[in-house]
Design a protein that fits this description.
The protein has ten helices and no strands. By secondary structure, the chain is an all-alpha fold.
Length: 191
């Protein structure tokens, strides 16, 4: 039996879809209310503002990425296996929740204080851990010699096109896609 989605979750899902389609600034609360079948005034009984929705989506995604990385780091120590598992998670997330990933990657700039500082801090900590993995690979003479910052930025940016390209219902073998993308990236990093 499918889990029943709360009205608040329906609002977040609809908002992510609208933010992806129209952008955060161009999405109105009236549009959002219509999307979830509520009067605009009723919407405020579930959420306080559009900013609250954006904050929730961005921080939720940041926490999911960090939680996955924490699990991966506990389970695995091999540099290339770590990077493969991280890449698989980025790919899966882009395919399974492209709307939230779009908001996370593009619309976060519209966050206000104190949330934008929290978000930047979480994102910076996550990226630092990936940079540390890349640097460890360079130090262990496993990854090509090069600027570690450039290598880690290249690694992370290798997934950003997916959420723009993928459409639900598209015939795709997700496992092959993960293996292909990850394989290309890791082959490029391997010494």
């Amino acid at each position: 039996m499918a889990k029943k989605i709360s009205k608040k979750d329906k609002i977040y899902i609809a908002a992510a879809r609208l933010f992806k389609t129209n952008g955060y600034q161009a999405t109105s609360m009236r549009q959002l209310a219509k999307e979830v079948g509520l009067e605009a005034s009723s919407l405020y009984s579930h959420i306080s503002s559009k900013q609250e929705i954006l904050s929730q989506i961005c921080l939720n995604e940041a926490n999911k990425f960090q939680d996955n990385l924490n699990i991966t780091l506990r389970e695995e120590q091999d540099v290339f296996e770590l990077l493969r598992k991280i890449s698989y998670y980025h790919i899966e997330t882009a395919l399974e929740d492209p709307m939230s990933v779009t908001v996370f990657n593009d619309e976060w700039r519209h966050l206000e204080e104190p949330t934008i500082s929290q978000f930047r801090s979480k994102r910076k900590a996550y990226e630092k851990q990936i940079l540390d993995i890349i640097e460890r690979g360079i130090d262990e003479d496993l990854i090509i010699q090069g600027d570690s910052f450039v290598l880690y930025q290249t690694f992370l940016s290798s997934f950003k096109w997916l959420y723009l390209w993928y459409r639900p219902g598209r015939e795709i073998d997700k496992d092959s896609l993960k293996a292909d993308i990850s394989g290309v990236i890791l082959k490029g990093l391997r010494k």
